[in-house]
Specification:
TIM Barrel, alpha/beta, three-stranded mixed β-sheet, eight-stranded parallel barrel, about 450 residues
Length: about 450
C-alpha cells in the first residue's frame, strides 16, 4: 500500500506547553529568549492540537489520506529526558493513535523532531554522547506503549538541519554558534539513531526509518573551483548523514580540513549502519553554490542563489523536477544499498488568508503540489522504490524561528481562536486522492 499522508511536529502544533506534567524543551527556552523568534512568538499554544486532536483527525479522514506522520514530544513523555516517566504524556499519544487507527489512518511516529528536553541540553545536548543512549531508552519506552498500533517509526527528523541551525549557526534552538565544531552533534545524532533502532526493534517496531533533509546541489558554473564547492556542499548536506547509514562509513571531509569525522569510537559505525526499512527524504528545493571569495574562507562554498523560478513566501525556489533529480540521484549513488524511500515532507509556505468569500484561495500551493506529484511519478517510473508521500503540513503552525509568519498548511489556522479552515489546496488534494490513476 502506497502511503499518502500529511506531516506535523509536536512543538509546532501541540501547545499545552506546561500542562499535564510536560517538561521544558529547548524550544520552550529558545522561543522565550528575546530576539530569537520573530515577533516573540512561542509554541506555548500553537495550534492547540493537544486539546483539538479529534478535530484534526476528522480533517485528515475527510481529506482521504491513509497515513499521518506526527512526532512525539520527548519532554512530554520524559520531562527530564530520562528517568521518571510522565503517564499523562503517554496517555495523550495513546488516545491520538487510537483515534487514527479508528479512522483508518496509519500512524507514523517520529521520536525526535528538534525538541530536545532542556534537561538534556543542560548536560551538553547532542554534543554529549550520553544523549544517544537516552534517545534509545526513550525509543524503547514509546514503542513498548505504542508499537502494537504504530507500524512505522522514524528515529530522527533532519539531523543535518538541527546540527547546522541549532549548533553551528545558532538560528534555531539551542542557539549555539559552534560552526564546524558542531560536527560531534552529527555523529551523536547518528549514534542515537542506531541505538534507538535496536531498541525499537527489540520492543516490536515493524518498520524503522530515519528522515533527513536532502537537496540537489548545482555548481554555479563549470569552473573547477565551483565544481569542488558543489562537491563539498553535497558532502555536508546530503552525504554526511546518509553514507554512514547505507555504506557504513563517513564521506571524505578533507574539504573541511578534517582527516576523519570527530567523536567516532570503535564500533560506532556498525551501530549506525543498522539495516533500515526505509529512508525518509524531505525535499523543498535545490541549492546552487560557488567557490567562496577570499584567501581563507570559513567554508569551502557559498550560496549562489537560484533565480528564474517562482518562490515561496520563504523565498525558496520552487523547482518540482528537483525532487525527481534528487531521488534518481540517490538511486544512482547508493544502488542496492538504498532502501525503500518515503518522501516524508514536501510543501510550501504561502501568505494564505481567507478571502471575502471565506475561502483560502491558495492556487500557488496547488501548483506546487501538482508539479511535485508529477516529479514523484517520474522518479517512480525511473525505478526509484518510493512507497509514500507526506505533505508538509496538515496545519498552519509555529514555523520555528519565523513564528507564525510562514503558513505551510493545507488547513488555515486562525491562531488567536484556533479555528480551522480547509484551503483550496486541501480540496484539490482530496480530489487527487480519489483518482484511481494517482
Amino acid at each position: 500500500m502506497f502511503l499518502w499522508g500529511t506531516a506535523t511536529a509536536a512543538y509546532q502544533i501541540e501547545g499545552a506547553a506546561a500542562e499535564d506534567g510536560r517538561g521544558r524543551s529547548i524550544w520552550d527556552t529558545f522561543s522565550h529568549e528575546p530576539g530569537k523568534v520573530r515577533d516573540g512568538h512561542t509554541g506555548d499554544i500553537a495550534c492547540d492540537h493537544y486539546h483539538r486532536w479529534p478535530e484534526d483527525v476528522r480533517l485528515m479522514a475527510d481529506l482521504g489520506v491513509n497515513s499521518y506522520r506526527f512526532s512525539i514530544s520527548w519532554s512530554r513523555v520524559l520531562p527530564a529526558g530520562r528517568g521518571a516517566v510522565n503517564p499523562a504524556g503517554l496517555d495523550f499519544y495513546d488516545r491520538l493513535v487510537d483515534g487514527l487507527c479508528a479512522a483508518g489512518i496509519v500512524p507514523a511516529a517520529t521520536l525526535f523532531h528538534w525538541d530536545l528536553p532542556q534537561a538534556l541540553e543542560d548536560e551538553g545536548g547532542w554534543l554529549n554522547r550520553d544523549t544517544a543512549r537516552h534517545l534509545a531508552d526513550y525509543a524503547a519506552l514509546a514503542a513498548e506503549r505504542l508499537a502494537d498500533r504504530v507500524p512505522m517509526w522514524i528515529t530522527l527528523n533532519e539531523p543535518f538541519i538541527h546540527m547546522v541551525f541549532g549548533y553551528a549557526l545558532g538560528t534555531h534552538a539551542p542557539g549555539r554558534t559552534l560552526f564546524l565544531d558542531a560536527l560531534p552533534a552529527a555523529h551523536h545524532q547518528l549514534l542515537g539513531h542506531g541505538l534507538a533502532t535496536q531498541a525499537l526493534r527489540a520492543a516490536g517496531a515493524r518498520q524503522v526509518l530515519i528522515t533527513n533533509n536532502h537537496s540537489p546541489v548545482w555548481p554555479d558554473s563549470g569552473a573547477p573551483a565551483d565544481l569542488a564547492a558543489a562537491e563539498a556542499y553535497d558532502t555536508l548536506h546530503n552525504r554526511l548523514f546518509t553514507d554512514p547509514l547505507l555504506l557504513g562509513a563517513y564521506p571524505d571531509l578533507s574539504a573541511f580540513g578534517l582527516e576523519a569525522a570527530p567523536a567516532v569510537r570503535d564500533g560506532d559505525l556498525e551501530i549506525i549502519a543498522q539495516p533500515l526499512d526505509g529512508l525518509g527524504v524531505n525535499y523543498y528545493n535545490p541549492t546552487r553554490v560557488r567557490a567562496p571569495a577570499g584567501d581563507a574562507p570559513p567554508l569551502p562554498f557559498e550560496d549562489a542563489g537560484i533565480t528564474g523560478h517562482p518562490t515561496t513566501a520563504f523565498g525558496w525556489p520552487v523547482v518540482p523536477d528537483g525532487l525527481r533529480e534528487l531521488l534518481t540521484g540517490m538511486k544512482d549513488r547508493y544502488g542496492d544499498a538504498l532502501p525503500p524511500v518515503y518522501v516524508t515532507e514536501n510543501g510550501c509556505s504561502q501568505p494564505d488568508e481567507p478571502g471575502p468569500d471565506g475561502v483560502v484561495h491558495d492556487q500557488a500551493r496547488i501548483d506546487f503540489l501538482a508539479g511535485h506529484l508529477d516529479a514523484l511519478r517520474a522518479a517512480r517510473d525511473a525505478g526509484v522504490d518510493v512507497r509514500g508521500y507526506y505533505v508538509w503540513s496538515l496545519l498552519d503552525n509555529f514555523e520555528w524561528a519565523e513564528g507564525y509568519h510562514q503558513r505551510f498548511g493545507l488547513v488555515h489556522v486562525d491562531f488567536p481562536t484556533g479555528h480551522r479552515t480547509p484551503k483550496a489546496s486541501y480540496h484539490w488534494l482530496k480530489e487527487f486522492l480519489r483518482t484511481p490513476e494517482r
